[in-house]
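User: Um, any thoughts?
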Amino acid sequence: MAKVEEEKGSADGRDDYTEDGSVDLKGKPVLRSNTGRWKACSFIVGYEVFERMAYYGIASNLVLYLTKKLHEGTVKSANNVNNWVGTVWMTPILGAYIADAHLGRYWTFVIASAIYLMGMSLLTLAVSVPALRPPSCGHGIKEGNCKKRASDLQEGIFYCALYIIAIGTGGTKPNISTMGADQFDDFEPKERVQKLSFFNWWMFSIFFGTLFSNTFLIYIQDNVGWSLGYGLPTTGLMVSVLVFLVGTPFYRHKLPLGSPFTRIFQVLVAVARKWNVPVPSDPKELHELSLEEYSKSKKFRIDYTPSLRFLDKAAVKSGSNSPWILCPVTQVEETKQMIKMIPILMATFIPSTLLAQVGTLFVKQGTTLDRRMGPHFEIPPACLTAFVTVFMLISIAIYDRYFVPTVRRYTKNPRGITLLQRMGIGLMLQIIIMIIACFAERKKLSVAREHQKFDQNDTVPLSIFILLPQFALMGVADAFVEVAKLEFFYDQAPYGMKSLGTSYFTSSIGIGHFLGSFILTIVSDLTRRNGHRGWILDNLNTSHLDYYYAFLAALGFFNFLFYLVVTKFFVYNADVTKSERGLQEAMETSPERVSTKGEALKTDPS
């Protein structure tokens, strides 16, 4: 009870307002005791549970819909999935720009959610209304023998719905997780400690929705029908938006601080114009605004750092005060922080390509294997993606509850290990996964040859659970790579560019999927030249996915070497490093405030 009273007001009885510039929807300062923290985050996480159910209810089984209903081949269906998923993860760059420069995160999110819901509704109609859905092949006719095809109008409406969804997610993805992190005041030690676990528990919570879609919804789609299978995710998305809106009175908001792209381009243009101007040895001679000016505009001043010194030319005083010729040190430092993350971003493209195999070729592999579980039940191939979710949930829980507290005693790092170290462990696991997938495919091809199962519709007498290790380990790898990547790009982005930082995370996945589509097409074409059969055919029983997985493992290995080089030269932001030292001291003096969501909920007045 004493802790609750402590959080409801300041020690001297004055109203306890947040200190990080948080406001309500009307732009007024907000009370710490009435807003934010896990009380507000519970609505945001609640939204994400249902939204993930909706998104993965479409994405996880999309490759099979394209194969079975639109009758697309292996390469075309995989590429169409990769291109759509890539678009889904790239549009957040635009959503981040709109949020940071114009509407703010809340209103950008609300408008984008309406577009998202419209796309989901149209997609449900496209698989339900007889005039819009592809014609049925008839009972007993296998997909490989079906001659009926969807009309151009039917395909057009289906893909139109998919890309409306992609536009909608562009406004939701970069803003919802950033809004969640915004609910914790970095100037209040207890909330800073709680924020450390936010991204872990954020990923943990949302994957409950993913687990539901990867099991129940996929079963419905394969065994009951696509109308209900897509109608349920649409309803789930509607529920998620309502849950988010209910939490509106409790949210803390950050005011839009102008276009981050404009501020970055101003620095780059100023550097180009003053390329031959020498940089003074004393950083105090560079142009900077006073603390009072930053305080009035509710912005934070960033201290000078010696990295990327050529950008300092933008802050060299040269007579003109035009923002395209002279920029303050803080603006230059913001640009430095965004630019120095680009090599790390580039090193995450190939890992995202490896991750893309889960929803495409891994699922297609399962269609050729024995899926029986008992005499009356067959597991849908895409249901194996549920093991990615399950093992990710288990890994995050073990990592946060046991690994971090144990390792923290030796490293003195409040996160246990650094974010880049965590990411590196995941990258090594992904290489191992591709090697395992290669050997699993070699075993399948061996059994197919042994039993003469060479037809496209033949089922190889080998259990689908031979694929379980590659799905399960991908969940473990995600607990390292994806969580660390999301937290890293948010953490290292400057205060006024958090949404843009989060869009680095989403664009990493998007570019990875586009790259996966490009690599798949090139490899498929090159391996069929000069009369060769090729590695990737519509008939997976005569394909050589094992060669393709080995090729991806090699790509992953060389990318890991590149990752080691760029991380060796990366320097964390000085303010973040100081913050982590302060957090470590706070946890050493207040051990009861360890960063777990469970303890946060116990001390929260809600």
